[in-house]
């Protein structure tokens, strides 16, 4: 079974920064689209925050709510998908999940909590 390992969540005041990291198996890292999703509360929908496709140009996508504040990138040395979150707002609070979208199926990490206080 494919496992994705997320690290880097925590608590921060509004305006602060956090960096999330998702480590993936090499095959998944090289052949699947990778993204970060946010779930505001348990049972609610997981919405994409940022992602990187598998194209050579490393095209990225950001939701409007985080554009200009978050930066998604890949670390080839660590086979990880990183999310640098700056200028955090209280509405960024939630559980952040890493997702790998592969040809046959997709995989989810276990999630990491991000809490932003005012």
Task: Give an account of the 3D structure.
- This protein has one helix and eleven strands, in the order E-E-E-H-E-E-E-E-E-E-E-E.
- The chain has one helix at 26-31, and strands at residues 5-7, 10-13, 18-23, 33-39, 46-52, 60-62, 70-75, 80-85, 94-101, 106-108, 112-117.
- The longest helix is centred in the N-terminal third of the chain and has 6 residues, at 26-31.
> What's the pLDDT, averaged over the residues?
94
Rounded radius of gyration (Å): 13 Å
Measured distance between first and last alpha carbons: 39 Å
The number of helices is 1
Q: Runs with pLDDT <50, length 5+?
A: none
Tally of strands: 11
Which class of secondary structure composition applies to the elements?
Answer: mainly beta
Question: What is the share of helical residues?
Answer: under 10%
* CA-based shape: globular
Largest beta sheet, briefly? 7 strands, mixed
Strand content: over 45%
Order of helical and strand elements: EEEHEEEEEEEE
Topology:
Blueprint: E1 5-7, E2 10-13, E3 18-23, H1 26-31, E4 33-39, E5 46-52, E6 60-62, E7 70-75, E8 80-85, E9 94-101, E10 106-108, E11 112-117
Parallel strand pairs: 2-11
Antiparallel strand pairs: 1-3, 3-8, 4-5, 4-9, 5-6, 7-8, 9-10, 9-11
Overview in brief:
The chain is mainly beta and 118 residues long. It contains one helix and eleven strands; from the N terminus they run E-E-E-H-E-E-E-E-E-E-E-E.
């Amino acid at each position: 079974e494919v496992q994705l390992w997320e690290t880097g969540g925590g608590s921060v005041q509004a305006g602060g920064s956090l960096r999330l990291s998702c480590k993936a198996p090499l095959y998944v890292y090289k052949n699947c689209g990778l993204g970060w999703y946010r779930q505001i509360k348990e049972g609610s929908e997981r919405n994409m925050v940022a992602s990187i496709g598998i194209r050579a140009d490393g095209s990225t996508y950001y939701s409007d709510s985080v554009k200009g504040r978050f930066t998604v990138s890949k670390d080839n040395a660590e086979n990880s998908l990183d999310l640098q979150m700056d200028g955090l707002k209280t509405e960024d609070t939630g559980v952040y999940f890493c997702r790998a979208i592969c040809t046959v199926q997709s995989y989810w990490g276990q999630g990491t909590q991000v809490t932003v206080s005012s």
